[in-house]
Amino acid sequence: MKVLAVLVLCVTLGFSNTLDSCQGRCGYGTDSNYSCQCNPACERYNDCCSDYAAICKASTSCKGRCGESYNSQNECHCNSLCPQYNNCCSDYNELCYNAGGAVTDAEIKSISERLYSLDSNKASASVLVIDPQALVASSQTSSETDRSSKPLFSFLNENALFSKPTYAALLSVLDNYNRMTGQAENFSSQQLAEQDKFVRETMSNTQVGRELFAFLYNKGIYKSEEDFIQDLKMMWFGLYSRNNNQLDSSGFEHIFAGEIKGGKVSGFHNWIRFYLLEKSGKLNYYSHSFNGPWTTFPDVLGMQFMWDGYYKQVGSAVIGSSPEFDFAIYSLCYITRPGKQCHLSVGGSTLIIQTYTWDNSFYGDGKKFIGSAYPATP
């Protein structure tokens, strides 16, 4: 009777005997030989052992935890968002990278081909003509020598492209920035509304944007379209400081508009911005050090140029793509491969996008802003 009383007391207080414990069982499948379970499904079916949280959930390993829901009590995490929050367990890549909601390289290539095929707003040869002229070796890019007598852009039918809603939305945002780092950006309510319109116009009102959201939604990365839109707004337009402790920069400004830091052009990876500044006489095209394999738009160039007194040694950009395509592929790569190279497939050829996280400040629950994203050149 005393032994039975002790066993009853242990159960009442939440202690378990060997058969009812998760010791050595975390991540194993359901086993009817045990009175309780120690896998992620047990939370859903309410049949976890009493020490499941202490032994399995607080573990610093992803064994048996790949794809689990976020739990703030855990020291580290094993879901598809942990790379972006920089709080994955140390063995996440080994155990989970291709499990659950994680995105494989093959899936990235497949979705990028779909985005490419859906880009109905990209330029065609009848509306855009470029003249790359001088091709230089990478060893010559630092010489600051103008080797091209003519502009890069020979012809652009602005009426055909700029009347499209996504192009118009981009144009309204591009002129909202002070290019000098170290000087704080201040936006009016109208300018904030223009940021919101750009994100919604490109991501909610185009086939490209809707396809990207559907892909990320099906991978479990976003729970709703509004969740997706709001995260993109913070990720791209949230301000942080590159210089002098001023809120002087954002991922969008750096990548799409370009900045000046340390006496040089920083960022600047958008062909429409390049065209507008070249047309206005503020940008002088010097040469290119890389030309992609594509014979139709979009193409990729690595360019040398002078922007109103400041030099860019290699400014790579996708040429002739729509705003929604640029925004989609950079977002795809940053969300799925933050701080890494991202291998896309575009028209059957490989396009590598390099992304960088901004590690000095955060938004939301520790998420990182975009530091940079651009086509990697050889």
Could you walk me through the main structural features you see in this protein, from its secondary elements to its overall organization?
- It catalyses: ribonucleotidyl-uridine-RNA = a 5'-end dephospho-uridine-RNA + a 3'-end 2',3'-cyclophospho-ribonucleotide-RNA.
- GO terms for molecular function: hydrolase activity; lyase activity; metal ion binding; polysaccharide binding; RNA binding; RNA endonuclease activity; scavenger receptor activity.
- Its cofactor is Mn(2+).
- By secondary structure, the chain is α+β, with helices and mostly antiparallel strands.
- 34% of the residues lie in helices and 19% in strands.
- It is built from 14 helices and 10 strands.
- The protein has a 3-stranded antiparallel sheet.
- Helix 6 packs antiparallel against helix 14 (323-336) and helix 9 (189-203) packs across helix 11.
- The longest helix has 15 residues, at 189-203.
- It is elongated, with a radius of gyration of 25 Å.
- Mean pLDDT is 89; it is low at 1-18.
List descriptors:
34% helix; 10 strands; 378 residues; three-stranded antiparallel β-sheet; alpha+beta; single chain
